[in-house]
Each structure stands twice: as C-alpha cells, then as structure tokens.
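Subject: complex prediction, re-run

Hi both,

The earlier run crashed halfway through, so I resubmitted it with identical inputs.
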Amino acid sequence: MANQLQQLLGQFLPEPFDWLVLTVLQIVALIICVILCVAYLTLAERKVIGYMQSRIGPNRVGPGGFLQPFADVIKLMLKEVIVPNRSNSFLFVVAPLLAIVPALATWAVIPLFPGFVIADINAGLLYVLALTSLGVYGILLAGWATNSKYALLGAMRSAAQIVAYEIAMGFALVGVLMASGSLNLGDIIEAQSGGVSNWFAIWLFPLFIVYFISGVAETNRAPFDVAEGESEIVAGFHVEYSGIAFAVFFLAEYANIILIAALTSVMFCGGWESPFAGWEFLQGTVFAVIANPSLAWFAVKIAFFLFCFLWFRATFPRYRYDQIMRLGWKIFIPVTIVWIVVECGMLLLKIGPWGTVL
Amino acid sequence: MAEQIIFYAFSCLLIIAALGVVVSRNPINAVMSLVLCFVTSAAIWLLLEAEFLAMILVLVYVGAVMVLFVFVVMMQDIESATLSARFAPNVWPGLVVGAISLAELLVVVWVRREGLPIAAVPEPHPADYSNTLELGKILYTQYVYAFELAAFLLLLAIVAAIVLTMRERPGLKKQNISQQVSVRKEDRVRVVKMEPESDA
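This time it finished cleanly. Structure:
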C-alpha cells in the first residue's frame, strides 16, 4: 500500500519530496492511532477497574460512556494552565513536551504488520533503549521546575526507580538479542515465526517476566506508582500542573504504557505472528486465516498486555519504596544475568528454535 | 547537499548548546544544555555512519550519567549558588585548555587542507551494513583480551566504590527485608478460639 501511495505521490512531486510527504503522512497516521488508543485506554481503565470493584464505571457521556474520553479532553483543554509564581516557567512548560516526545518517537521503529515500519533501521533495539531512557527527563524537570517539595520528592523517586529498572530491562533485551541474532525489530519478530512454541516468551520466560514487570515500574504504574503516591505526596511530580499541560503528562504516561505493551509483544510474543502458524491441519479450512501473520494478532497481544496493566492496578497494593529498589537491584538483575548464562548454554547445545544463529 | 544542511544545522545547535553550558547561570539550565550537546553530537555521529556509537552516547551519557548529574544538581540550593563569583579563579586553566583544544582543531583543519592520506574520506557503506555487527565481531575476536580486561577493571572499580562508601555506623537499626517479605500469616496472627460469653 505504501508503494502504491508513493507512486501516486511521485506523479506530481519531485524525487526526494514524495518520500518526505509519504513519511510525514505515515507518522501523522500512526500518532493519531496512538492518541486514539490512549483515549480509549483511559476509558477501558475506568471500566475494567470499575467492574473489578463491582461498579459500572463511566456510563453517562454517549452510548455506554463511549464518548467519555472526548469529554475529558475538552474539559482539560478549556481549563487554565497555571504556572506557579516562583517556578522556572520555561522548564515548567518544556517538561511535558520532553515526556511526550520519546513516548511517540519510539513508535518509528516498531513494525506493525508484515512489511510496514516507518524507519527500518538495523539498530532498532538500541534506538528503543536510547529513547526510552530519555523519558525520565520530563518527570525530573517537571519536579524541579515546579519548585515544590512534593513535586521534587516525586521526581526523585521516579528517577531512581527508572534508572534501577532500566538496567534489568536492558539485560532482558540482551537475551532477546542473543536469541534473534539481530537488533532489527522486524528480524526479531521473524526469528519467532512458526507458532507459539517458537516465541521467546517460552524460551526466555524469566526474561519475559522481568521485562514486563520492569516495564510496569518504568511507566510508574501501580503497584510501582510511588512517584505520584497520592496518599503521601499529593500527586508527585505533576502536582502543580493543570489544564492541557497536565493532559500532556497523562498522554505521555498512557502512550508509554501502550509502547511497553507493544514492545513486550514484539520482543517476546512474536509481534504480528500468529500463535497457530505451525498448525498444518488449519490449511484449506475457513480457519486458515487465523494462522496468517497480521495486524490483528499484534493488536490482540497489545490489548492483552494493556489489560494486565489495568489488572495489576486493581489487584495489588502499592509497594513500599525500599522494596521496589530491592526488587529491581537485588532480584531482577541477578535473575536476568543467570538466565543469559543459561541461554548461552542453550545456544551452544543448540537447544531451542534458534539453533541456526551461531 | 541535504547532508550538508543537516550537518550545519546540528553543528550550530551544538555550538549554541555548548555555549549554554558555560554561560548559563542556573546549574539546571547548564546541565540541560549539556544534554542537548550530547544529543546533537549523537546526531552528527549518525551522519558519519557511526550509529552504534551515537545510540550508545544517548543511552549511556544522556540516559544514565546525566540523569545522575541532574539528580545531584537538583539537590543544591540554587538561590545561594552564585556561579559568577566562582568563575574568576578558573579563568587561567580554562584558557589553557581552550587554547590546546583550539590548536588540536587547527591541526585537523591543516591536515584536511594539505590533503594528507590519513584524512581521506572513506567510502560510504551500503544501507544494510551493520556497524554494530562489525564492531562486535572485532571486539570479541581480535581485541577480546583487551575488552575482557577493560570489563574486569570496571567491575573492580564498581566493587571498590561500593566498599569505600559503605560505612557501618554503630547503633544503626536495619530492616531485614527478605525476612519481612517472606513472613507468613502464621508468624503474625494467632487465632484464639473461645466460647461465646453472652447468656442471651
């Protein structure tokens, strides 16, 4: 489809500009999709947690509460953005932008369906790691620029937590890199083709668990949400933010959640690949279509991980701060290192579906 | 043409950011300018086909080292920190370092102008050439001992840093977290069976 569009554009645009216009169109389409997903993730969160707590959740705006996200966005946009008197007003305004940009820019290397990725670079995994490590600046600067003790405490907690869990996340991805033999996210998905038994989630199960839980901690979600811990420090780093500035932080948090869900499904659950890919008897029946790789499978996997995020929030009490640090440094990092050594053994003995890498 | 536009745009940004590091009165602004410096130099390295180094620069320096920098600077009381007062004593060392750097840059410019073979422009690689793969191959074969030695030194430095900074104060109360985490209901709660005392 992208090629046809490029040919169409090529008819009335000179050589480098048709590529430029096409890429910009792809970026805009993807960002609109992500923002719509964020909008409905907020609704899903309130509905899912509502039903888990025997409530109904929002049901007034639109049929079944379906227009609630738009009502929320319009309300936030119409509110006044208050900049505290003794804050650093430039950094106060820039901080939400620093939070949102890495969350959206990382989507450039994520392959959505076979043959579609905005930037097919062969250092994709490094790009993902580099950009996700930038997200912490938005929170840190917001906490400092506000010039409030609560905000500063929230920023400190968040930064220490993100630095701690980033290491475990990086190590988990080292395992993925060893198994797939490539840094390109498309190649990582290809390495897991051939049904559910070839997914890295099976062969690298400890790394998969560590990666996903670290992802929950990286995005400051419950049960790791001490950065905003409303019972202790009001709302943490965004305590003084209002109106659209608050909405941008909200958008960044949820965009990061969707990103972690997408990355987990790419790295460990085969991205667009179907779990039934190896089932021969499906061929020739009406069910043959579910064995094909498609965007639908990717969406199903992302939706599952997003549901897990909401499920955790409704189920677990908040961790104590020293226990969060202990889990990150003393449990997750040793677990990943041990499993990387085990994986080296598996690679040498050619156990597992990746015997051809070496 | 496009490459040159990108190069000059990023170079200008880099110089402005570097000036910001030196000139800015507010330590946080200085640190953020340094972050901008790192990100723009990573972009310039990408133009030189050094994508592995560029990504690692962002990942290590921007993502980890500078976060710790911001951490420390945020703890300071910036109202009382008057940077200009402390600037003057460092003028002479600063000028010497600046002069040496300038001389080095001028040597590079001179080598380029003379057209010496060490400064020849390398052939651009095809798009599927993986810088990371080549670097990994050479690091783990030709330079494996040096590489392992560097890794071992770093590990030693980590252990030394921890040992040097860990002080056991007398009378310190500690929590045994693994004991706290592994506690069970039976350890804490005692269920007492008793007959109802009411006559009704």
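The interface with chain B takes residues 16, 88, 91, 121-123, 126-127, 129-131, 133-134, 136-137, 140-141, 143-144, 152, 155-156, 159-160, 162-163, 166, 183, 322-323, 326 of chain A (CB under 8 Å).

- K.
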